[in-house]
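User: Hi! I'm working on a homework problem where we have to compare a predicted structure to a textbook description. Could you give me the structure for the chain below?
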Amino acid sequence: MIMDNEKVEIKIQSRFEYYIDVIKKKLIKPIFGILILLGVLYIGFYLLLFLLVFFGIKYFIDNLKR
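Assistant: Happy to help. Predicted structure tokens:
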């Protein structure tokens, strides 16, 4: 007969602790995800703007040399 040695852990906590855990899982993680996404988009758009200005100036200078 094979017996599995599986253990079940029971966490005893107050309602306040339970609600804090639910808030952490349901609110804080998605908010951090959205903030990271917005930060990446913000930085990306500024890099794109910098590249557009740089190549625009380069194009303008090349046209002046001709």
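For your comparison, note the following. The chain has a mean pLDDT of 91. The chain has one helix and no strands. Good luck with the assignment!
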